[in-house]
Design brief:
The chain has 183 residues and is an all-alpha fold. 70% of the residues lie in helices and 0% in strands. The protein has seven helices and no strands. The two termini are 13 Å apart.
Length: 183
């Protein structure tokens, strides 16, 4: 069983809190609301690496079972297995994908932007498929337009913001680049 240092646990907890805070900023757009969660999920992957990034996402998903930290202050199994559940489950491979693309101690801005954009793929993939199953809709329009296209421009912007923020944080004397990237 892997051991985590206090510093690592603290960093994962900070990102769990940031993702929860990002869920409180909600703009309803049909079955799936717009939130800032994706920004912090991508940042968690970029800054923490796959192991700690995944830990922060899993902690967020678990916390949402008992506390109102999902979008709009919702919580419980009903949310995880409801129409937006696929997007929530997609956060885990999204953060891991962003971490995998980042993978160097001092990545350049193009690599960080690519990491953010790649991290969106599993989030949208799982989210759209799950949304289609939940809505029992074979309609391409309902799922792709309602579950992907209306969010894509702002999520691409969030990927760019995450990349710029990660690059700025890597350049500060916070010790983030000292984190082993295999964690």
């Amino acid at each position: 069983m892997p051991r985590f240092t206090t510093r690592e646990l603290t960093l994962a907890a900070i990102f769990t809190a940031l993702i929860a805070g990002g869920a409180l900023i909600t703009v309803p757009l049909g079955a799936v609301p717009f939130t800032l969660q994706v920004l912090f999920v991508l940042l968690a992957g970029m800054l923490l690496g796959p192991r700690l990034g995944a830990m922060s996402i899993l902690a967020y998903l678990a916390l949402g079972l008992v506390a109102p930290v999902y979008a709009g202050g919702s919580s419980g199994l009903g949310v995880l297995f409801g129409p937006t559940g696929g997007y929530l489950w997609g956060f885990l491979p999204g953060a891991i994908a962003a971490a995998a693309v980042t993978r160097s101690r001092l990545p350049g801005l193009p690599r960080l932007v690519a990491a953010g954009l790649v991290g969106l793929i599993p989030i949208y993939g799982l989210g759209a498929v799950w949304l289609a199953l939940q809505l029992q809709s074979p309609s391409y329009e309902v799922v792709v337009v309602g579950g992907v296209l209306q969010f894509l421009p702002l999520d691409v912007l969030k990927a760019f913001i995450a990349a710029f923020a990660a690059r700025s944080l890597f350049s500060l004397p916070l010790g983030l680049p000292a984190l082993p990237r295999d964690r």
